[in-house]
Records
---
Amino acid sequence: MPNPIPLGVFGYPAGHILSPVLHNGAAEALGVDYHYLAYEVRPEQIGEAVRGAQSMGFRGLTITIPHKVAVTEFVDEMSEDVRLMGAVNTLVFEEDGRIVGHNTDGIGWLRFVEETTGEYPKGKRCLVLGAGGAARAIAVKIAQCGAEHLEIRNRTAEKAAELARFVEESIPGAKASSGGLENLQEAAAGCGLIVNTTSQGMWGDAEREAASPIPEDAIPESAICSDAVYIPPDTAFLKAAERRGAKTVRGTGWLVYQGAASWKLWTGTDMPTDLVMQKLLDALDKRIKGED
Ligand code: ATR
């Protein structure tokens, strides 16, 4: 029997990476012969590792922290989203030898928001909390969708200002402004969409896990609230949003849908997202209970 077609993720460290759960779950459910593994690749060896994977017949790779920006040097072509987001999360080894860099973070997020809420950022006032890599992917997507206005707030206000400037300069018609984390009540008033990309709410530190990036009473009842944090799946922010009667969009869905977009680029098939989501939730549950 021929070996399965290799896929994988390059990160450093790599022990905590969950994407094998998604992609091996999809391969098994669809009965297709792909096998996906996590590889720990040191930053100084990322170029060698990418070329090695290509020589070894990999169909593609997920690229994660800390390689997402550095790997742009080793691609022959990059998608428009990579150019705008400044980072690669997916490589495709094309049959003609080209290495193509993609970024599925923004489109995965957008598809999941649409599927969960039936709504789209177009015409909405939007608030993004945080100004790191995830914020950039979301800010670009929100602006591309034709949001009415984008407000970016971050603990380090200068990073939010840089991102707002970048969005206005790069996306025709985009309107963005920025600030620190003070007066979030004012920033959120009239917002139809609030996205948390900070690490507030994340499991692993009790104080951080209990924290919402925005006070509960600042969340408008009519807002869609989306969290990048996926462990725990129901974060302090999403619980607060639910109490306000707002629509919530879990980070687990974002994780699955960005993976589904990568899977489609590699295999041409649709990831069975409901089934894969259940596998992810089981894996997260084990992690929280210390069983993995
Ligand atoms: P990612 O690529 O996931 O976006 P990142 O680039 O490390 O990760 O960004 C993390 C974000 O969480 C940043 O916006 C960070 O704010 P700073 O730019 O001021 O560092 C934000 N963040 C981290 N810890 C935070 C905290 N305790 N309170 C508020 N924001 C926090």
Note: DSSP finds eleven helices and twelve strands in the chain.
---
Amino acid sequence: MSPNKQTSTNKRTVENTLLKITTVRRAVPKSGFVLLILLYILASVTLSRVTRMGGEIMFLGYPFSLRSAAGIFSSLANLCVILLVVVYRKVGFITGLIVLIGQAPVMMIQIFVFHNYNAIPGVFTNALTVIAIIIIEINHKRVDRFQKTVLEQAVKDRLTGLPNRFAGREYFGGLIKNREKFVYVAADIKNFKSINDTMGYETGNKILIEIANRWKNLADNGNTGTFNLVAHINGDEFGFSIQEYNSEEDVINTINRFREELERKITIEDCDYYVNACFGYAEFPADADELDSVVSCASVALHDAKRRDIINEPVRYSGELIQTERTLEIERKIREALEKDTVFFHLQPQYDMNHKLRGFEALARMKDADGNFISPAEFIPVAEKTGLVDQIDMAVFRKAAKFLEEAGKNAEPDFTLSINISVKHLLKNSFIEEVQGILRSYEIAAKHLEIEITESIMIDSVERALDRIEEVRKIGIMVAIDDFGTGYSSLSYLNNFPANLLKIDKSFIDAMNTGESNKKYVASIISIGHVLGLEVISEGVESEDQLNTLKEIGCDYIQGFIWGRPVPPEEAMKLIPGQ
Ligand code: C2E
Ligand code: MG
Ligand code: MG
């Protein structure tokens, strides 16, 4: 098929689809049509026989003139015609007219040739029925016209005349239903708000109309080499589909054709304007296989193009963009929370094996605008990447220190409050000064404090960290090695590392009771810890089985849902004996 022919075939498809949207679909069975015609014929034949026969029959014990029954059959026949018009609209109307007018010559012959004047009432009835069905049909036409206008307004954008968001969705949805591969492109006119603000809405609207006309013409004349449908989504956002492309290059070329059309000078009331746009696109089914996902993937790509201010090439959706989007969103939320000082903390109890409280671990908490928690597993890595983690650490440290000031008054001498500190933060020159600042600000004893650093420190930065850890220890603060077992650190590092506590990672506790070797592995970590003079705590203990095994293999402490989830400080306070 030649491209032009192909394009015109598809143009019909676009129009058909849009037409279908603007057509009220009525499901009326064809069999009803046949039934009404048969009923009509039956009533008419009976009518003529009854009229000809004359005489009487007995009905329910009364004599009944057959001629008087003629009225019943005549009304029945006309009712069939009226029903045909009401239910089957145009087809019914034409059929009804043919049937009624077709009878006229027969009736005329009866009256004028055979002088059968009994046919005269029939002529009147037929004429009245013709008038009735013409009135019904005129009324149908008016209602249809009105409905079409209303529906057209519903699918056409008022300003530009392009299919609107709804029509676009129907069309793209149709492609997805037929499993036809296509690319959805989201386009956003750059700086359109400032055109509106400086030149006024009227000029802004004229520019939008001009863009719409240019893009519609381009899509309709098939010059892009692919097949396209352009829709006006809202404000300065357009969406278009690209179909019948052979390669990514075709897609990019098509988008560039749209860009070139856009970037040509636009003259409105003797003023020249130059506009450009960002484009993001996603492909069905390669990138997403539902309408909403295709559209939102394209808008993720568009968002990225806008954020990076890319106007000379379209951005294609990729999974990483979602990641970037989410990261940026989380970063925004962290900054906002830090600014408003809404980062808070929960405390998770740690116990010895006899269920005596050792202390708590402070865990950072953050909520989004809707009040939902954002997991630290999500925001801490973002904070680390963006250099915000030390502010989070310190926000938690400060607030937890205030808690300790309260709790420490009556607490046991070995009561411990653990604070998580990111390796990056620990290595900062200002770290020790920050810690001392806190110790000065609150009435707390350093011996109640413990700093948790992940095992990764012993793999990447142990040399640089050793001095810093020594300084921390000199202040009197204890040090725990968090998530132990996940980092393959060498034993010799562990030997030289001035820590007090090893925290066995939850993953080992999870696996511990699934096989003898896993249990032995945890037992060895505990033994090595003890040999090196460290105490050992197991993280994420959830079941009695795990607890019993840990007792059996000599673990010193546990922290886990079995004996306590992270709770707000007020609740934690109640867990301290004597408070
Ligand atoms: P982590 O320091 O290893 O903290 C333990 C995590 O395990 C916490 O998750 C805790 O809620 C969870 N957990 C404890 N017991 C159980 C259990 O029995 N079952 C299960 N399923 N989970 C348990 P959370 O609060 O989501 O914290 C995740 C990580 O975020 C922490 O792991 C820590 O690495 C980091 N983090 C939390 N707060 C801070 C902070 O203030 N500063 C820094 N730098 N990192 C923090
Ligand atoms: Mg921790
Ligand atoms: Mg941990």
Note: The longest strand covers residues 357-367.
---
Amino acid sequence: MTETKFTPRVFSGIQPSGNLHLGNYLGALKRFVDMQGPEKETVYCMVDLHAITVWQEPKELAHSTRELCAGFIAAGIDPEQSILFNQSQVPEHTQLAWIFNCVARMGWMQRMTQWKDKAGKNQQNASLGLLAYPSLMAADILVYHATHVPVGDDQKQHLELTRDIAIKFNNDFGVDFFPITEPVIEGAATRVMSLRDGSKKMSKSDPSDMSRINMTDDADTIAKKIRKAKTDPDALPSEVDGLSERPEARNLVNIYAALSNQTTDEVLAEVGGKQFGEFKPMLADLAVAKLSPISTEMARLMGEEAEIDRILAKGADKARAIAAPILRQTYEIVGMVGAKQG
Ligand code: TYM
């Protein structure tokens, strides 16, 4: 890890668009919970402004934002210990994003694989926000001078861009102001794959609901989706090498490892030699045991909408207390008159 003058601070975000799924949980949320502790400040955000880079029905967006907040808390984020809020309540994110829009280059944005995937062949018709998305993401992180960002593997390129923006800003203005953030991409499930196709990432945009486990699925649905997950006819190997050409088998073993807090090697030492007919029920039992309490608690919290809104507003106040002075200093560095006041 690089030494910096910055105090350790964790930041990460999840989009409130559609359902929270097992990939979000194992690749991000569960790890956010693990990073919570007295030695580091942890800041977690529902990035509603990122979500609207593609069309969102207003009512559904509001519902998804509250449901995501319920998911954070049900998974173990303590709003007293972590700062938990939605992005649009902290205007400093978009204010810093504008500065970064003027630091980052068009070419950097156009190179992003997520832009190419999401805009597809119809780039002229994509929103300008979708292109500028990574610049807002850099602002999310850097407006807190965050040093560590836990994410799944698919966000790696965006975090490299965040570092590029910080480096260029520091160079352009001759300062050492923004930290060079460390991506934290760790564990057995940094890339959870579709249950129907081991070469595709588990995602909320997959048209098949059988491809993913949603955090709101009940026990029967979870068990059914695992029972029907695509596999191959062979028994499980005892060593990780034996999974290299078997993407579906590797995915299920990795999910088992992440859910049971073990390494893939440890899991294979236990299940090597078993057929899927035996392994799938083990995985289904484990998944139900770990996920059902979360979905039950999410449903309960969703009955307390006013309480969720209160938590988000309180989190936003705490977030602004950190972000506002950093934005003010940024304005001052850039030469905005009046930046010293307030
Ligand atoms: P989003 O909302 O697509 O996903 C939220 C988090 O879940 C992880 N993830 C996965 N991990 C493992 N396997 C999968 N199949 C899988 N699918 C999703 C993502 O890597 C992510 O960590 N741009 C971000 C949100 C964002 C953000 C930020 C993240 C906005 N600003 C600042 C970190 C810091 C996104 O769209 O994530």
Note: Residues 305-334 form the longest helix (30 residues).
---
Amino acid sequence: MTDDLQALKTETDAALAAATDLRAWDAIRVAVLGRNGKLTALLRDLGKTPPEERRERGAALNRLKEALTGAIDARKAALDDAALEARLASERIDPTLPPRPRETGLVHPIARTMEEIAAIFGAMGCTVSDGPDVESDWLNFGALNIPAHHPARADHDTFYLPARSPAAEREGQTKLAPPVLRTHTSPVQIRTMLTQPPPIRTIVIGRTYRADHDATHSPMFHQCEGLVIDRDITLGHLKGCLTDFLRAFFGIADLPVRFRSSYFPFTEPSMEVDIGWDRKSGELGRGSDWLEILGSGMVHPRVLANCGIDPREWQGFAFGMGVERVTMLKHGMADLRPFYESDIRWLRHYGFNPLAPTMLHEGV
Ligand code: DAH
């Protein structure tokens, strides 16, 4: 190797040894092998070498190139290894450190109740169905056997949407009655029967809306609906199912449950369901008073027929209850309004540990 080549090798080796990071390493690589690098210049000048020396000079240059490339690559590998070692050392964790207390969020009581309801009916073999908050007049009322001017409509302080709203256009409702914010979860019964052949076992849990506001009513609230359709479903199934549910939900194995005849346009016969409690102390399952808790009944043949289901072949039951109401009763809450106020002190008091699983009680 001639002196100039040897000098380049020595100089490069020294620079590589001094390079302690990838940036310095890369600068050397470019200075030697880059387009304007020293070795590249020497190779370019090969043409100027007298022809008799060119062969030898060329071979020497090739050897030098190989040596330099090898040295540069080796330094890169060494620097990469060192960087990895340093990272591993800095990311080392000490599993013996005690955990630091951490503030976790809590599950809202409404969400908790919805999880519990779904768990209990899920264990009975129900699916969970849902539908939109904005409903057509037909699905919210008509198909449920509540025609226009039916007095039952007066019980639902309905929020009507403009007939020409985007929601109305979507529902194809521009010429018919204006769409509504659903006043109950019952339209999802209809949606389910229209899209799914029986047998059906499902519940619906979701938001509902009525123009009503006081200590026990909110314009937005939640309901849970149930629908069971099969060839031989009877009132006995309804009673067994709801009794089991109420006892599981309230965690009282012998909770008294009473079925009292009532009226809903979409069921025949219809029944209100009461549970036993002591009005004075507010204690459930004790005392001799009754508290109304939900509505239910055998699905009206006309509702089945509205959904294209032959009522001579299929029958079943349905029920509906207020999620806020059962939550308030279960946890002894007097006022509904704090549910929606997001007061962190209230949430800390009534919220649930998100890691605690939803328990299924005895009897389910
Ligand atoms: N939809 C009723 C309401 O909003 C509740 C209800 C009663 C639902 C009886 C039902 C039922 O499915 O069978 O008050």
Note: The longest strand covers residues 267-278.
